[in-house]
């Protein structure tokens, strides 16, 4: 194998190990395909997500994602290798960007009165949301959310937490860039130096489920920055060694 190709292959393998070791994703439902296109087809009626676990446990993130967002694709992992799938000037990109800007504006308006935060969204905002949203609070949000209402409380809170996570991550790592996709919850932050992407809205759905309720997302923000920097450093080293 050509040395440069071998080096690039080893970089990809290394990045996968880093991502799996530091940040983990909610496993998709059995039989789902990770390369399934992000196409959402309408359903005539959605039923409330059943909670068949013990009374103290929340529903699974896959069930919640299928109920409130899409049953045509699996929930995404925390990180994935980046690729551009839409033109920057496309209508879908503009629609997703507009929705995300609206979610951020809503969070800035609403959160100071709910979580005792001030200033701009930050890792402190992430911590306040995380501490407030324990199992009883999240279960109440789920119970009071109509899956057939596009802007129900569960979807709204996941959306706002997703954009606040993005703000906190960008403060930690200013080079992060939005990559907009439709539906908006498939938009992500792209890190040019490591070529990894952070699926912030899928992080927020996991937080609002049994899977991620105890993860500690302010710590996760810091861990993500460290993971990306570690990956970027190893890429630079491998590329230098291959010259």
Distance between the termini: 15 Å
Tally of separate helices: 8
Quaternary = single chain
- Shape annotation: globular
Q: What is the chain-wise order of helices and strands?
A: HHEHHHHEEEHH
Q: Strand percentage, roughly?
A: 5-15%
Please report the total strand number as a whole number: 4
Could you say which structural class the secondary elements and strand pairing correspond to? Answer: mainly alpha
Over all CA atoms, what is the radius of gyration?
18 Å
How would you characterize the largest beta sheet? 4 strands, antiparallel
Can you tell me the residue ranges where pLDDT is under 50 for at least 5 consecutive residues? 2-22, 28-44
Average predicted confidence as pLDDT: 83
Q: Taking strands numbered 1, 2, ... along the chain, how are they ordered across the largest sheet? A: 1-4-3-2
Binned, the helix content reads: 40-55%
């Amino acid at each position: 194998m050509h040395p440069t190709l071998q080096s690039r292959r080893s970089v990809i393998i290394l990045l996968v190990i880093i991502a799996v070791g530091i940040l983990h994703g909610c496993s998709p439902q059995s039989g789902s395909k990770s390369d399934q296109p992000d196409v959402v087809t309408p359903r005539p009626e959605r039923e409330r997500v059943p909670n068949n676990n013990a009374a103290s446990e929340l529903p699974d993130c896959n069930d919640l994602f299928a109920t409130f967002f899409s049953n045509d694709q699996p929930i995404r992992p925390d990180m994935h290798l980046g690729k551009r799938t839409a033109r920057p000037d496309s209508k879908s990109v503009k629609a997703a960007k507009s929705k995300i800007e609206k979610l951020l504006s809503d969070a800035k308006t609403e959160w100071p009165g709910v979580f005792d935060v001030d200033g701009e969204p930050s890792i402190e905002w992430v911590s306040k949301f995380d501490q407030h949203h324990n199992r009883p609070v999240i279960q109440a949000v789920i119970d009071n959310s109509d899956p057939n209402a596009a802007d129900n409380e569960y979807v709204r809170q996941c959306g706002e937490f997703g954009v606040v996570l993005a703000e906190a991550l960008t403060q930690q790592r200013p080079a992060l860039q939005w990559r907009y996709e439709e539906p908006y919850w498939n938009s992500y932050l792209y890190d040019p130096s490591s070529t990894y992407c952070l699926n912030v809205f899928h992080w927020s759905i996991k937080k609002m489920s049994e899977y991620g309720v105890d993860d500690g997302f302010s710590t996760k923000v810091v861990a993500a920055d460290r993971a990306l920097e570690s990956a970027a450093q190893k890429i630079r080293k491998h590329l230098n060694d291959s010259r």
